[in-house]
Amino acid sequence: MYMDMKKFDERLQKNEVGYDHKHILNTAPGQIPNIDIETINKGVTYEQLKNLNAPVYTYNTQITIHGIFPGNIERYCYGYQSLVVNKNQSLGVRWTAIDREKKEIIQQSMYLLPEKQWNINIDSRGMSIYKTVELSKVEELKEIYKIIPDIFFGDKQIWKSSFFQLAMLEITFNGIKIENLWEFISFLTEGKITNQKEFETQKTIKEKKEEEKEKQWREKRKKEEFLQDKLNAERKARVTEEINNSKDFIVVTPEIGNWYLSVSPKGNLIINYFYKAIGKMFQKNEKVDTVEHGKELLRKKDISRFYRKGSEVLTLKNTYYNLKSEIKQEKKEIEKPIISKLIPATLSKNNQIKITRNESKNGIEITFDYKPSVVILSILKTYHFKWSQYQKIWYTRYSQKLYETISQKLGVTQDVIKGGNR
Fold it and tell me: Among residues 57, 61, 106, which one has the least CA distance to residue 81?
């Protein structure tokens, strides 16, 4: 569980535990501590640092080693910047690099309990142990606050959130002496884990439960897969028989309008269809319930149903958008410069659509006497026509092939009208 401190706007209580007073000057300026940077970067304990031959002081953000460390200093440990060279040339070791194994034992102890009493968060700022209640129960947190043993390095505080009506008791845990570790864990676990032996016992019990749970899941999964394979085989046999009994089954040949049936590995009935779009032939397939269902799709020529993205059936507009890459390739061919005579405009029979060649702009212009349908707008956008709000026209670059193609698709006929200027 992540602790969002932004929710809490007021601190009710705070108490720091186990820190020394700061020293401005380096108390051992000519001394080299008997520990190297590489050892510190691997992670150290409080006991290792306190047993050095140089003065060591414990502060709320770090443990500071006085003396001089020669050479370059690698500042990172456990992925965080954990070493700091102070102004007085002493070396500060952030708490994120100290007592890491002890913190992991505390964290594991919390997870071993059937019911979690505390939440734990470890990040670049360190380790926080906290619990959150409704604001009306803040007195319960204050009682717990009083009995937290002051045997660790860090602080304890109670936060309040008036907006969210929450209260939180937080222990900022930096480190602990080894002789106090299990007493602190006993407090957090309410006496359920008090020593290393009980910890190992609870850990073994937890691991066995997880193994048993994993085993049961695998057995269940195996049974489900067996039943699913059986259903797939039965469905495949049934669908195969349906295909064989289909009187008008068409053997697949690469011709427009041809279709054939197939069975997927899972036994689904697939109808495969050859169709023409933007001057090319494509093959798409669609899962159908029955042969009759597939035939109905073909009779309606609802080709948009043959375009799929995941399990979602796309609309006709999205169908054309899906073909953008193919159209782009064809546009490269049809947009090659073509020197031709002036081409007259084309009109629909009732003069509702007019397609004009604009020679001065080397473009094609289309005007409508009515609001175009979604299908027509999709066709225009497919061929990269743009809308001019000022002149109320659709336009794009000219090519002979595009001119003929768009005229055919919009159902207009040739008429001798000179093109205008856009």
Answer: 61
Q: CA-CA distance, 5 to 12, in Å (whole number)?
A: 14
Q: List, in order, residues 6 or more apart from 298 with CB less than 8 Å away.
A: 259, 271, 273
Q: Where are the alpha helices (DSSP H) in 65-158?
A: 100-112, 138-147
The β-bridge partners of 386 are: 395
| Element of type H or E holding 356 | strand 353-358
pLDDT at 252: 56
Among 247, 297, 289, residue whose Cα is nearest residue 273 = 297
User: How far is Cα 122 from Cα 100, in angstroms, rounded to an integer?
Assistant: 10
Q: Retrieve residue 38's tokens.
A: 């590489």
Chain centroid offset of residue 282 CA: 34
pLDDT confidence of residue 199: 93
How far is the C-alpha of 64 from the C-alpha of 84, rounded, in Å? 9
Buried b (16+ CB within 10 A) or exposed e, 2-31: ebeeeebeeebeeeebbeeeeeeebebeeb
Q: What is the pTM of this model?
A: 0.54
| Chain Cα centroid distance, residue 20 | 45
Domain boundaries, the chain: 1-190, 195-314, 335-414
Q: What residues have CB less than 8 Å from 288, skipping those under 6 apart?
A: 269, 270, 271, 294, 297
pLDDT in the model for residue 19: 74
Contacts 24+ apart (CB under 8 A), 81-87: 82/41, 83/37, 83/40, 83/41
What gap in Å lies between CA 363 and CA 403, rounded to an integer?
Answer: 10
pLDDT averaged over every residue in the chain = 78
**d(Cα 97, Cα 267) in Å, to the nearest integer?**
58
What are the backbone angles phi and psi of residue 44, rounded to the nearest 5°?
-130, 165
What percentage of the chain's residues is helix, strand, coil (to nearest 5)?
35, 25, 35
Sequence length of the chain is: 422
